[in-house]
Amino acid sequence: MYGYIRISKPELKIKDYEAYRAFYCTLCDTLAKRYGPSARMLLSYDATFFAIFSLAADGAACAFQKKRCAVFPFKKCIKAKNAQERMAFAADLTVILAWFKLRDNLQDGSFFEKALSVLLLPFVLFKFRKAKRLNSALYDMTRSYFYFQFRTENDPRTGVDASAEPSGRFFSQLAAQLCETENKAAFARFGYCLGRFVYLSDAADDIEKDLKKKNFNPFISVFQINEETMKQAVDEFIPVLELTAAAAQEAYRRCEIKNYTAITDNIVILGLEEQTDRIKMKYKGVKT
Q1: SS3 content of the chain, % helix, strand, coil (to 5)
Q2: 0.90 exceeded by the pTM?
Q3: For residues 41 and 49, is the Cβ–Cβ distance under 8 A?
Q4: Can you list the positions of beta strands (E) in the chain?
Q5: What is the pLDDT of residues 225-246, one digit of tens each?
Q6: SS3 for 156?
Q7: What Rg do the C-alpha atoms of the chain give, in angstroms?
Q8: CA nearest 5: which of 252, 217, 181, 240?
C-alpha cells in the first residue's frame, strides 16, 4: 500500500504500542507462514491497520504471548494468538496489492522503479497466484480498483475529487467487508474518506517528482503547478489534505469501535494529522 496509515508513536502509551507491535509482528509471521519467509518484505503499516481495525470494530479481544522472532532470532516479540482469520485476510491483501503495484510501476514508474519491478515480479508471481486462489473475491475487488484508477488517471478532465474516487471506493469496500457489524454504513463511509486521504497524501508527496517526470498528478493539473508556482500552490493543496483528514476523522467518530480504541484513535486522529504536517513541513522548504 502507500504507508500513510501509521501510528503517532510518541502519543501512544507503552502498553498500546506493544499491542500494536504485536499485531504488526503477527502479520509478519502470517505472511511467512502463508506465502513463504520472503513475503515478510511486503509487510505494510496499512494492512496492519485494517487487521487491527476489524478486530477493534467487532470487539474481538486477542491473547498475547512472547515468541522468538524469526527475523531476529535472539529477540523475543509479543504475538497475537487468536487473530488468524483477520491476519490471513491482511496477508492476502498485502500480496495482491504488491502484485498490482508492481505492474502499475511498469507502466508509470521511473526507470529505477520499472527495473526493480521487472526483478520483483517473478518473486511475487507465485505468491500472487496463491493469494488469488485463496481469496478470489479480494482479487476481483482489487483488480477492479486498479482498472478504475487507470481509467480515471488517463482522462484529461480528471480533477482532484475524481482521481481520489477509486481509492475511496476500494477502502470503503474493505472497511465494510472487514467489519461484521450492523453499522456497516458508517464503516463504509469511514473507509471511503480514509481512502481519499491516502491517495491525495500520496499525490501531494509526489508533486515534485511528478513535475520532473511529467507524470499524472491531480494537484499539478488542477492548480497548474510548475516549479515557479510551487510556492503559491502549497497554500492551495495542503488545505485539501487537511479537509480530507477531517472528513475521515468525523466519519471514524460515527463508527462504534469496541476494542483497541487507544490504537485506532491514535492512528486516525493523530496519525493522519502527523502525515499532513509532515507533507506540509516538506513543502515549507520549497516556500522559503
Answers
A1: 75, 5, 20
A2: yes
A3: no
A4: 64-68, 76-80
A5: 888 887 778 888 999 999 999 9
A6: coil
A7: 19
A8: 252
